[in-house]
Amino acid sequence: MGSDNTGLRPAPSSGVHRWRPPAVASSLVTRPRLGHLKGFAQSPVSLVCAPAGYGKTTFVAEWAHGPDVDGRVAWVSLDDGHNETFRFWMDVIRAVASVSTGDVAEVLGRLRPPRQASESAFISVLAEAVGTIPGTRWLVLDDVHQLREPQLIADLDRMLTARTEALRFVLVGRTDPSFATARLRVSGELSEIRAPELAFDLAESEVLLSQLGIALDATDLADLQARTEGWAAGLRLAAVSLADSTDQHAAVSSFAGDDRAVADYLFGEVFRQLAPRTRDFLMATCVPEVLTVSLAHELSARRDAGAVLDQLCQANALVLESGRKLSYRYHGLLRGYLMAALARRDPEALAAQHRRVAQWLVDHGRQREGLIIALSGADAGTVTEIAEVCGPALILDGQAELVLRAVRHIDNRANWPAGAALGALAALAALELGQLAVADEFLAIARSQDHAAPIVNRLVGVAGVQRALLGGDVPAELEGTKITEWELSGDPDVDLLVLSYRGSARMRLGEYEQAVTDLERSLQLAEAGGHDEMALWILSQLSGVTGSACDFTAMKAWSDKAIDFARPRGWADSPRLAYAYLLAAWTGFQTGQTGEQKYFAERAIHCLDPVTNVEVALGVRSMAALAKFESAAGRERHDAARLFHELWQDSTTDQVSPALNSFATPQEVRLALSVGEHRWAEEAVRRVERQLPHSAESLTLLATLQAARGRESEALQSLRLARSSGVEVHVRTTLVAADVLAWRLHHHRGDAALAHQSLEQALDWAAPRNYRRPFLEVADQIQNELWAGLGRYGRAEPFVEHLRAQMADGQEATTRRMPAPIVLTVREQELLKDLSSLLAIAEIATARMISVNTVKTHVASIYRKLGVPNRREAVMEAARIGLL
Amino acid sequence: MRYLIELGSPVSDIALAAFPEFERVRNDRARAVITGPVVDQSDLFTVIARIQTLGLTLCRIERIDTADGAAG
Q: How confident is the model at residue A28 (pLDDT cuts 50, 70, 90)?
């Protein structure tokens, strides 16, 4: 509701729907000249802009109840709290839904705005939904001057730009909003009403005063009108003051002769005339913006608080019903004046009232409002107490910015040392906002203080773990905090933070079962507490953990669930969804559905935040490079392979989970070999030997490299080692890859029995899990053998049939989308470069200091591998697939 | 940061009490001038909001970090 309510009309009664225009009193001065203002609300955007008390809200409300538009105007009264993205858009959605019909209302009802203004596609989703409303609706945003968050204003600007016939905007405010209006004015799409148009002229002033029982002669009326400049609130206040005056003429003269600010003067007058008890009551209850009877009772210690408010409401219209049941609000100017009066009389009483209001709000479950009130005037001790108690819940509800502001407030203004709990909360809030440097600073403060209390200890610990997840030493953090040994604290918000970040951290160590247990438990807490954004993040994490544990069915189910959870809320671009998209892309990759792989890889990279969990960031970027490689040709394939390789040269790869490493590095090696970069492949193998020593992963990669160099027996030896007991297996898929490689090598050596044995081993695990990738990668080389063995695969038979169908189904397309790895030896790779030159075979032999026959043998091998008949086509094909 | 704020008419003591952290530099028939500390941008906005809420006229607002605050 507009705080510049002039008192000319009662506030909306509590029965009126919250999103509808406020009711207009029948006793209102009718102002026909305003009603005919040309084009009002016929433009895409209309602006009503004037200082407080000019009757802006009254004017727009009266228009909204007119016969032309009645029932089609949605209304949102803004306050400071609307600077939060979530609250602002939630109210806009609800308001627009309230004047929409069936389908549209339902679509709008499912949308959930982002908690922080970083999810840009939300506006497009909203604008699209709004655009489908049949006919025209209006949305009034009252008190737009309250909006000042730059990101929110930018979003609203985009919403105004995305205007449709379906929805027109009416912006009401004291000052020109800093968005869109200039551009709209130039393009003629803005209509405006300002103070001069709204000001009461002489005739209107006379009607207003006479309705309030004041009759002035022409001179006094003109004096009063001139002094107030037709300011509606001023006229109204003057009337209140004059009503009690014995000599109206003298009162008007003294008023007209005083050069203090009109509001200042008039409130002084009105206030002076109130009974002392009423004055005390008003001052004792001036801090809350909305005053319920029970809060008024609490603050004033008067049993008759309800009756006093009711009486004030009827008597002078400076106290208004607020629209909620049994609650009131003071006229904005009166409230400001009362707070100033209280500050003058007793500054400490003002701070004390802030404290009591803040506590009352917190006690009534309104933690956000409580902290805001505390910040606006309570002592540092109160802010500290509220921030400590409500901090975890506020961070989980996307109020990280508010928490950080509270801690800085305490730090800055009161010289109050931020203790361990506040430091940890500030660090968690900063991490939530992606401000790593700020987080480090507060984490250091938190750690430097004693924190014996178990809850505080947990907060400090979980902040450290979360910091490490965004780039740091996760095992050391887990070790140092002993977080894995913690029992639940019983505080659901703290437990939710602990379980979810601990689960994520455990994944990095390869403790997948415990990670799933933690995350499933935290998902319950997030759902029970209604922390939707956290729930989405946890769903994504669960998809990641189950994928790391090679449970691809569960992985797919969790990632589907995450995406389904996000979409109706308008969160398809949420950074919290990036991980789920990555795993959906991974599913597409491992089952050979390149289209899906590409689609989800692109979504994932699109959602990625600049500061994010190292595991997610590296996984998403690797997947994007891989998807690019699969769909590219020629130089671009080479670039994609280079990009993949470079991603894994970074030192942060030491921090990621063994699973991500185990899934990604074989692809790095495959890509490097397919574009003829043996050195990159070697570097990858050496790195994995260091990062995952004595593992099936490093041995299988070594075997891949050895096989590529034509050293088949060495490769088979490495594979035997990889399969031997005592070697660690980080992801079970590695053994499938190892078996498939062994099958290929045995087959190449003509050892049918061993080949079949390897194949059976591979199918044994892969078939029930529909894990197709390793088979698809060698399709060209061994598919005939695979078919020849049909009937001998037992339970894996349907899986092999499936593979066969996939490979046969558009053989050409499959080969193009998923090129079989054409792996040249180092020597062949060198000769390939010579082939693209103008040198004859004999000249090549001389230059390389080898015999002509050796050159011919290598060249024949190159032709065979590339599937080409001659030198010219070999060069063309090599260029196409990125080998040159 | 220190700011100087000029309000466009004499201001009553009660209205000035809304700015306890500011010092009164002058308050006469022409104008009221106050100076005081402002912590950051959001603090500055709350000061401006207080001026608006009291229905006062804001004539000038200026950062005066280097000055001694006696700009009137």
A: low
CATH of A400-551, one of 1.10.10, 3.30.920, 1.25.40, 3.40.630: 1.25.40
Over range A491-520, report the average pLDDT: 93
- Rounded Cα–Cα distance for residues A656 and A468 (Å): 11
At A291, which helix (H) or strand (E)?
A: strand A291-292
Whether the CB of A335 is below 8 Å from some CB of chain B: the reply is yes
The answer to whether B11 contacts A264, with C-beta atoms less than 8 Å apart, is: yes
- Written as six digits, the tokens of A83 are 């600077």
Interface test with A, best of B6, B11, B14 (most A CBs within 10 A): B14
Burial environment of residue A850 by CB neighbours within 10 A (0 to 12, 13 to 18, 19 or more): middle
Give CA separation, A772 vs A569, A572, A737, A762, in Å.
34, 29, 10, 10
Encode pLDDT of A394-406 as tens digits. 999 888 889 998 9
Q: Is A148 on the interface with B (CB under 8 A)?
A: yes
B-chain residues near A49 (CB < 8 A)? none
Q: Is A260 on the interface with B (CB under 8 A)?
A: yes
pLDDT at A38: 54
User: From 3.30.420.40, 3.40.50.2000, 1.10.10.10, 1.10.10.350, which CATH number describes the A826-880 domain?
Assistant: 1.10.10.10
Write the pLDDT tens digit of every residue in A117-166.
556 678 888 888 888 888 888 999 998 888 888 888 888 888 887 767 78
- Does residue B1 belong to the interface with chain A, where contact is any CB pair within 8 Å? no
Cβ distance A261 to B14 less than 8 Å, yes or no, reads no
Mean pLDDT of A430-435: 89
With beta carbons under 8 A apart, name residues in chain A contacting B9. 259-261
Determine which of A260, A269, A346 to mutate to test the interface with B (most B C-beta atoms within 10 Å): A260
Token pair 């590409």: residue: A598
Residue B68: pLDDT over 60: no
User: In chain B, what residues touch A412 (CB-CB under 8 Å)?
Assistant: 39-40
Q: What distance in Å separates residue A451's CA from the closest CA in chain B? A: 30
Nearest residue in A to B30, CA atom: A259
Considering the domain delimited by A204-363, tell me its CATH architecture.
Answer: Orthogonal Bundle (1.10)
Contacts 24+ apart (CB under 8 A), A292-296: A292/A324, A292/A326, A292/A327, A292/A328, A293/A326, A293/A327, A293/A328, A295/A357, A295/A360, A296/A328
Chain A residues in contact with B17 by the CB 8 A cut-off are: 340-341, 343-344
For CATH 3.40.50.300, the residue range(s) in chain A are 32-198
Homologous superfamily assigned to B2-63 = Alpha-L RNA-binding motif (3.30.70.1560)
Chain A: give the shortest CA distance to residue B37, in Å.
11
pLDDT value for A612: 78
SS (H, E, C) A229-290: CCCHHHHHHHHHHHHCCCCHHHHHHHHHHCCCCHHHHHHHHHHHHCCHHHHHHHHHCCCCCC
According to CATH, the superfamily of the domain at A32-198 is P-loop containing nucleotide triphosphate hydrolases (3.40.50.300)
- B32 contacts chain A (CB < 8 A): no
Instruction: Count CA atoms within 13 Å of residue A510 on its CB side.
Output: 11
- CB of A340 within 8 Å of any CB in chain B? yes
Is B12 part of the contact surface with chain A (CB cutoff 8 Å)?
yes
Q: How many CB pairs under 8 A join A and B?
A: 77
Contacts of A268 in chain B (CB under 8 A): 12, 14
Q: Where in chain A is the domain with CATH 1.10.10.10?
A: 826-880
Coil, strand, or helix at residue A805? helix
Residues of B in contact with A261 (CB under 8 A): 7-11, 15, 54-57
